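Hi R.,

Here are the chain sequences for the assembly we discussed:
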Amino acid sequence: MASVELKNVCKSFGTVEVLRDVNLALEGGEFVVFVGPSGCGKSTLLRLIAGLEDISDGDLMIDGQRMNDVLPAKRGISMVFQSYALYPHMTVFENMAFGLEQAKLSSDEIKARIAQAADMLQISDYMERKPRQLSGGQRQRVAIGRAITRQPRVFLFDEPLSNLDAALRVDTRLEIAALHKRLADTTMIYVTHDQVEAMTLADRIVVLNAGNVEQVGTPLELYARPASQFVAGFIGSPRMNFIVGEVAAGHGAATFGIRPEHVDLSRDKGLWKGTVRLTEALGSDTFAHVDTETAGMVNVRLAGAEPIGEGEMVFLTPQPDAIHLFDASGRPVHGARAA
Amino acid sequence: MSAAPDISPATARASARTSRLSRERIRSAWLFLAPMLIVLAGVALYPLYRTIWFSFTDASLDLLGEARFIGWRNYLEYVDYGNGDGEWFGLLADSRWWRSVWNTVWFAIVSVSLETLFGLVIALVLHKKFPGRVWVQAAVLIPWAIPTIVSARMWAWMLHDQFGIVNDMLQRIGLIDAPVAWTASPETAMIAVIMVDVWKTTPFMALLILAGLQMVPRDMYEAARLDGVPPFRLFRRVTLPLIMPALLVAIVFRALDALRVFDIVYVMTPNTDATRTMSVYARENLFDFDRFAYGSAASTLLFFIIALITIGFIYATRMNLEGDER
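And here is the predicted structure of the full complex:
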């Protein structure tokens, strides 16, 4: 059970400040996801923990030990790279053994560890193949397997699913979730820009924006009580409706936020009157983009395959207990929840 | 029996359409290739054919038009003196020719090996980020940018036995007692030529290897850092195997160049047995000795020897020339 702690961690490349005063405390065995748009510093943060980049200022502690000046190989971490970073000229077995040989393990121990990891990831059948003979999903498993054999205290994933196709991504996501359950003692840190991956995998999510930590919390905390307009917009799919103008002013806020799933649609009465401009039927859900007179364009989620025609006149009513209000700087306005 | 495959009119039409389309593609491919093929035939194929033809004739420089076919006599001929005695003549029986073949191969092996080694070292250094790297890169390329004739002449002066700066410097620091006739003495002539070639061509090698190094993904090194792989092992087990294709291509390029070396030798050490290469030998016969057909035979053999060595090297290293993923 290795805790990871970051104290006032800063990172600059030359004069460009990429991370500012990051403070985080991750508990041992936790699955933490760093999420944010590209360029927010999430990968840099991971690389600082891995030791692939130097920390400009602040402290990194693993298990209470300061790690700033410890070599990557001595930090007790493993990393799965976005592009897998398998050695193309080595077989699967050699790829997994290469790092272990360096750790001065006996060959029996190496074989045992590799066999165990291969078994866990169901890659035992292609231990003698080269990476180019494997599919993307298989390569990803080998990369994860290689990381497992090191028996790390902290497991780092750098956007491991972004090179896989959509169906495989879902499968691999479930496998990573299962892996976390099996390796319950290992702290896992996972970087992604995909909020669905973050929501489904994480014990806790760290939302980063432009080098700052916006919010840390469980997936449902972030969904229900976003600490900023940025988090409200980033977490949840499709994205929350942000309404400015008189609707927001009527609530004493600069921005009025309501998720598509928290708007009731009626054909005869409601708060906002509008016209359906566009519908997206996904089978399980239907999304209607409604052009309202008072609130502008509002996206509404309807359960099932709702037969709603484009051009139809409808009424929308936001659910009063699901309204989010933000001030001009994007901070939440409290105490003004009810409509 | 109705075993014939059922081809509906629609599918038949479709296949006719694709084949017409691919015929169209093939036609335009030939159209685009034609100018290049014609030029190649004119500047490479035809001279090669003429050289090979002359090697089977008795052509001399001023009587090219009256060349007569004489078979293999330029290559090998047994002349019977009628008294039960006889002698072998021709290129294949000429010890001077075999000496120049050996000189060429020796020159190629030593110079390409040294260039590969130094080029690799320089490329590894240039691959690292350090202040002023751009300037060092430019500086390293200077020898390659100087025309060979100029650098060969320059070095010939520097290595001059009486007035050369090299002798002067070596004497001053006490490494040699008396001036050495670097280019004139048979013991040192080849060394001098190889040294100048290495000086000139190492930058080219370094550049090709650097390109190979830059193709190695960065995360490969990062993965190795996480594994704590020490630098030398990293180089031997990861970097070297990954740049091997680029390295082999560079070696073939250089070997092809080195096997037909002419200018350095011709300028620095004209007319010495110690350094005479195949190209120098062929030129001598073609133009200086007025044995045009004989020189053509030498050129022809030179062509086949280079082709054989190159094919052998490509085969031995299982080099992938198709460019697909290894």
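Chain A has two domains: 4-228, 238-326. The mean pLDDT of chain A is 91.

Let me know if anything looks off.

Best,
T.
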